[in-house]
Design the sequence.
């Protein structure tokens, strides 16, 4: 699996402190829908840093945080 094959976006938030945060999207592929409104995904990259597309991780997240990617 590669980043260019990503079909969905994962909504993320990075908090600096209690008043400052950054929202961003990460490319992902949905592997499986779980029965408790969660999904198993493969996430590409590391936060919003460019040039780290080779990193992949498997995560279990709420279904509401994953949206279909516009083609």
Sequence:
């Amino acid at each position: 699996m590669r980043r260019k094959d990503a079909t969905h976006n994962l909504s993320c938030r990075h908090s600096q402190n209690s008043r400052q945060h950054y929202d961003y999207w990460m490319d992902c592929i949905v592997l499986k829908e779980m029965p408790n409104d969660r999904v198993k995904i493969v996430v590409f990259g590391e936060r919003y840093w460019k040039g780290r597309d080779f990193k992949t991780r498997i995560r279990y997240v709420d279904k509401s945080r994953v949206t279909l990617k516009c083609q």
